[in-house]
Amino acid sequence: MVVSKPKKISYWKRSSNARIALLYLLPSIILFSVFVFYPMFRTIYLSFFLTDQAGEAAIFVGVENYTYLLESDAFLNSIKATFLFVLYTVPTGIIIALILALLANEKLRGIGIFRTIYASTMGISVAASSVVWLFLFHPSVGMFNKLLNIFNLPQIEWLLDPTWALFSVSLSTIWLNTGFSFLIILGGLQNIDEHLYESARIDGASYWYRLKRITIPMLSPTLFFIITISLINAFQTFGQIDILTKGGPSQSTNLIVYSIYKEAFINYQFGTASAQAVFLFICILIVTILQFKLGEKKVHYQ
Description:
Number of strands: 2
Radius of gyration: 26 Å
Oligomer: single chain
Strand content: under 5%
Structural class: mainly alpha
Largest sheet: 2 strands, antiparallel
Strand order of the largest sheet: 1-2
Helix content: 55-70%
Number of helices: 13
């Protein structure tokens, strides 16, 4: 009896699935290459050069751009302002969004109206909201100073006083970002199994005990996600700064992204601007890694 040998499948046929997968991925690969990977490698490349006004590499200087930044008081101040801004906006915004989501998750008549109001800031652009806050912070006709006048309190130069400027921008940012955080957290709350609460009520557990032992642990994946996204967005803040303060007064609101913008498109120093961008990338990368290493340990996925 003759046993026939199995036909050898050609590499071309064996790799057909990989080629089909690559074909589906090709549009994404092209978009990421053009708008993400090329700008990233171009930025790293320019950070080692002095450039002309057109942004072309002129003189290779190695790490001198990075050395200059670490010795620059303006850059060190922008780092301090950025981390303070992140500290002001991220914890406060998430806590407010969590409280609003807990309130909106109650089964009450007309609660949908409040959910819509709380989430409405998602539909407002940074530019539009910043213009509104610009009028609210106005020293003579702004609502905040008018409220202070009612209580015979001294007026505050919200956007002109270095002591208050960063706080004022942070306040507008918290208001703008709360809608997104609220909606994500509310979705997480509604995915928690109601039977867990019913069992806890039968056992006589109080509201605060249920919040601590059921709600927060079951909501931890959502909170982990929203904290990570909020941290990244806070480091990349630009629009509010550009419209409200232009980085002033006395560079008190000169966050890193706005510093990069000024260095590149006002001073035409693309080399040092690229070095700042690399530094920002490293900061976000480190914060994100720490968030995953430390924060994910406390996340309960079941």
